[in-house]
Write a structure and sequence with these properties.
Layout lengths: L2 H11 L11 H21 L6 H8 L3 H7 L3 H21 L10 H18 L1 H11 L7 H20 L7 H22 L5 H12 L19
Helix pairs in contact: 2-3, 2-7, 3-4, 5-7, 5-8, 6-8, 6-10, 7-9, 8-9, 9-10
Length: 225
């Protein structure tokens, strides 16, 4: 085998397959069981305890099934993050989450502080999801973007309502707030911020949502989630 052919073979072996999407009720059930088992395993033992073979055994599916829907551990972690945001979005839309506040900033602050409190109760999960959500591996770019957009959509609904289409400035402010929330969480995990300091940064960032649009920027247009 030539050097060039060998290099091509190695590069091909590094390509991560795209996750399969469930189509039937049985497939959705198997995928959900995998996510539930992985979430429980991660919460109790951290990333070291999250082994694909153990997940398959606990979820009562084949190892091939696990890899079909989650080609890598990072795909599995990103799917956990997305599932969390999806559940939260449903609860917000059904008014199952009581968020006090008369302004967008107050409502988003109330939600994010509640989310941070939940993260404090599950440090293993928080640490793993924080790591994967800042990953730069191009194999996960599409999934990573979907998760980020889901979080932004959730914050948009909390801030502006179900049927809103935020303009460019409003959407960019939401991105800044989400970024500050992620940064505060990661710094708390790393021990660089106390919990009180992290909460202060989160609440402070949310005040940007109550600034008048003209004070944020001059670009106009609509940026949909």
């Amino acid at each position: 085998m030539t050097v060039k052919a060998s290099a091509v073979k190695v590069a091909a072996s590094r390509v991560v397959a795209a996750p399969a999407q469930p189509r039937t009720p049985a497939q959705h059930d198997r995928r959900s069981r995998v996510l539930a088992s992985a979430s429980a395993m991660l919460a109790t033992g951290g990333e070291d305890a999250l082994q694909m073979k153990r997940v398959a055994e606990d979820a009562r599916v084949s190892l091939a099934t696990v890899y079909r829907y989650f080609p890598s551990k990072d795909h599995l972690l990103l799917a956990m993050a997305r599932a969390r945001f999806e559940r939260a979005l449903v609860r917000v839309q059904q008014a199952d989450i009581d968020l006090a506040g008369s302004t967008a900033g107050e409502r988003v602050s109330a939600y994010l502080l509640r989310e941070f409190a939940a993260q404090q109760r599950q440090p293993h999960v928080t640490s793993a999801l924080a790591r994967v959500l800042i990953g730069t591996n191009p194999d996960y770019r599409e999934t990573h973007d979907e998760v980020q957009q889901m979080h932004l959509r959730l914050l948009s609904v909390i801030a502006h309502g179900h049927d809103s289409t935020p303009g460019y400035e409003a959407w960019m402010v939401l991105r800044v707030v989400a970024g500050c929330f992620g940064s505060a969480t990661r710094n708390w995990i790393a021990g660089l911020l106390s919990a009180d300091e992290a909460r202060f940064e989160i609440a402070l960032a949310c005040r940007l949502l109550d600034l008048p649009p003209e004070s944020v920027g001059s670009r106009t247009g609509s940026v949909s989630p």
